[in-house]
Amino acid sequence: GRAIMIYATGGGQTSAASGTGEIAGSDLKTAALPVTVNIGGRRVDPLYAGVAPGLVTGLLQVNVVVPADAPTGDAVPITISVAGVASQDGTTISIE
Predict the structure, then answer these.
(1) Which residues, at least 6 apart from 58, have a Cβ–Cβ distance to it below 8 Å?
(2) Minimal CB count within 10 Å: which of 46, 77, 83, 94?
(3) Residues 96, 64, 71, 42: what is their CA dihedral angle, to the nearest 10 degrees?
(4) CA angle at 43 for the pair 20 and 77, rounded to the nearest 5°
């Protein structure tokens, strides 16, 4: 599968606290709560979920590998769950 980066908000605190609105440095602070991703009905555990280096803290960067057996098309459903709470329906990605 292909590795992708997803950006989201609402990920909660990081494992080492960071102040909202600061610029994240190269010190990778991971999400304190468990993060999972669902791509086209396939659950994916992130390679990384935490601050986005060089961007504003409060933004969650999630790196995942798209499963090889994921459906293809212009509108494959994707959700991010933080501590079991899923993002809103209707978000999609394009997979060739």
Answers:
(1) 9, 20, 21
(2) 94
(3) 180
(4) 80
